[in-house]
Amino acid sequence: MREGLFIKKNIDKWREYQYEKTSDPDEMAGQFTELVNDLGYSKTYYPHSKVTNYLNGLSSRIYLGIYKNKKEETSRIVRFWKTELPMVVRKHHREVLFAFLIFIFFALLSAFSASNDETFVRGILGDSYVEMTEDNIAKGDPFGVYKDEDSLQMFVRIGINNIRVSLLVFVLGFLLSIGTVWMMMINGVMVGAFQYYFFAKGLGWASVLVIWIHGTLEISSIILSGAAGLMVGNSILFPGTLKRTASLKNGAMDGLKLLIGIIPLLIIAAFLEGFVTRYSTMPKFISVSILSISFIFITWYFGFYPIKVEKKHARLSLTQTGVTA
C-alpha cells in the first residue's frame, strides 16, 4: 500500500484517538493495540516517514495514559469543558444544524397554522392555559403565570422537567432518530403556537423580552439535546466503515457528552424562569442584557469555539508530526 493511501485510510481513526480521549482502560487498551499494529506496518514499509514518528508518539501517549497518575484526573473537568466537549460538538456540527432547522421548521409551521386557524392555539396549549392567560391580560399582567408559584419550588420543578425532557429527546434517538425528530416537532409546535399567541395579542416583543430571558437557554438546550439524539440515530443508520455496534457506541458516547454539557444550561434556565422572569416590569436594558449574554454564549461556545479548538489542535498536530491528511 502506498504511504498516501495508508494515511488517508487511517487518518480519521488516528485523529479520533488523538482528540477524543477516553478514560476507559479497556477502550484505551484497544486503541493502543490498533495503533501498535499500524505502527508495525508503518515501520515495515515506511521506516523513515514522518507518519511512523507520528504513530510512535501517539501510541506512546496512549500507553502512558493507561498508567497515568490518578492525580491528573483533577483536570478532567477542565479538559472536558475546554477541549473534549467542543471537539464533540465540532465533529457533529451537522447534527446541531439539522436539529436547529427541524425545530425552526415546525415552530414556523405552527405559527402559520395558528394564523389561519383560531382554534389551533387552544388545541396545542390547552383551553385552561389560554383562558388563564386571557384573564391575566385583562388584569394588565399578561405574564402573571410566572408569579403564581414560590420561586424555589418553581426552580426545582422546572429544572427537573427540563432535564427530563432533554434526556427523553436524547434517548429517543435510539429509535433511528425518529423519536428525536418527533419530540423536536412537539416542542417546536408548542413554541410556535405559544409565541404566535402573544404576537396576535399585540404583546409579541414584550413576550420576547420576558419569556426569552429563560427561553434562550432552555430552547437552545432542547435543540442541542435533539442534536445528541440525532448523533445516536445517525450512528445506527450510517455506520460508515465501522461495525454498527462500534458506530452506535461512539454515537451514544458523543451524544451523552453533549447531554451532560447542556445540563448546566438547563439549570440556569430554570433559575432564570423561577427567580428572574417573574419580574416582567424590569427595565428593558436588563432583559436585553440577559438575552444578549445567553445568545452570545450559545452561538460562541457551540458554534465558533469548537471550530477554533479544532483548528488549534490540527495546527499542533501538524507542527509536532509534520503529517498532512
Protein described:
The protein has 2 domains: 3-76; 88-306, no CATH class. The protein contains 12 helices and no strands. The protein has helices at residues 3-19, 25-45, 50-66, 76-91, 93-116, 120-125, 127-138, 151-171, 178-200, 204-237, 244-275, 284-321. The chain is elongated and about 80 Å long. The two termini are 16 Å apart.
Secondary structure elements and pairings:
Blueprint: H1 3-19, H2 25-45, H3 50-66, H4 76-91, H5 93-116, H6 120-125, H7 127-138, H8 151-171, H9 178-200, H10 204-237, H11 244-275, H12 284-321
Helix pairs in contact: 1-3, 2-3, 4-11, 4-12, 5-9, 5-10, 8-9, 8-10, 8-11, 9-10, 10-11, 10-12
Shape, principal axes of CA atoms: elongated
Q: Uncertain segments of ≥5 residues (pLDDT<50)?
A: 69-74
Radius of gyration: 24 Å
Largest sheet: none
What's the helix count? 12
Mean pLDDT value: 89
Work out the number of β strands. 0
| Order of helical and strand elements | HHHHHHHHHHHH
Strand content: under 5%
- Backbone structural class: mainly alpha
Provide the descriptors you would attach to this structure in a database record.
2 domains, mainly alpha, single chain, 80% helix
What's a concise summary of this model?
Helix content is 80%, strand content 0%. The chain has twelve helices and no strands.
